[in-house]
Predict the structure.
Amino acid sequence: MKTHIQEKAALLLISDSMAMLCSFVIALLLGHKAHFTFGLLYDHLWGFTALFIPIVLLFFVCDGYALHKVRQRFGQQVLILGFGLLASAILSTFFFFFFRDPIPRAVFIIFYGSAFTLVVYFRKILNQRMLSSIPWRTLIVGDGKRSLEVAQFISSSAYLRTEVVGYVSGGNGSQAQNKLPRLGNIPDLVSIARKEAIDQVIVAVPSQNDDLIKLLLECMQSKIKVSEFRRVIEEITGRVPIDHLNDNWFLLELSTSNNRYFWYIKRLADIAVSCVGLCLALPLFPFIALLIKLDSRGPVFYSQQRMGRGSKPFRAWKLRTMVDGADRNNVHWTTDNDDRITRVGRIVRKTRLDEVPQLFNIFKGEMTLIGPRPEALSLVEMYTKAITYYPERHMVTPGITGWAQISYPYGNSVEDTRQKLMYDFYYIKNRCVVLDLMIFLRTIRIVLTGKGAM
């Protein structure tokens, strides 16, 4: 069976869903006093839904559906699945506490026991099928250097089950002839694709003329998938390769990504979360403020001019975690074991409580919950000179957490910022309610475990 990247992710979800449904039927058969019928299953359908949704969300948060995990040792996957089921069982126990006998205790216990067994078993079979499935035969259209770069990138992602057969180009292709076979010229694309039984054509040329477009359309008519190499990299890595961008990319890809209904929902969510968050954190402020004052001299709060949407500066607020005047010389990067961080500051930073005052910025609309992190004005000036297209990240409202923060470790260099910019552009292009929810849930995991990016 030939499966592509989206299909693999969907198969993982379908596999888990089937395993949990079978587990619930087994639990009703063995743990319920009444004789099992479809009517009994229907009566407890809402109870199954209350069990199913938290499990899927926790699997998602724990990277249970991240395809790169498929290539890890199966024992690591089992640990992820086991932790997700255990956490779900604890959450469900608290939830069902407020309802009278929603699911019999025996059914509840048997369900989680059998769910772990069947989910792991189904995953094992599916993983074996994925790794042994027929690979996608791929042909690259482009010059030797770029074709080789794309081929090496795909080859490093073995879980994709994609075999790069070779490439076609308009030149002699001598740059990659020894490492990647050159199968012919671009005008022969269709005949080569049919001869080699190609499943996918990746276009790795900077621009396409009318003749090439006609050839690609003919490939599509032959049920050959046609993909642009930047989209392939973006799909696999969750980041946009800025080395291969041009002005047209921003016009074509970002001009259609503004959904006003999404922004309405996002703004309402920001107001709700900021109000609730401030109310919950308010009782802790006096104690944190006292600890900060006792630990070092200086104000409790720290503010700094940051760059906002439309390149308009605003003042961001945080709890002070460093010695007073730590950024006096425009040194904003924080290094490991930075001696500017106070003792209390290390604890506050680790728990992310220093970010809580930024909820005021969110309430005012200067920031949002999910978005690219705002940077200090002096850093923005430096990044703009060093990194192409850096100012374009300011076309959206900055956030407390974002796709770059959960995907890439904390950076303290221009290169780290450049890497994060690729993730920022991915978010700007693909921002939606589902992506925001995923970032929010994974941020919670990072805060609770202290592990991950940010």
Q: What stands out?
A: Residues 260-449 form one domain.
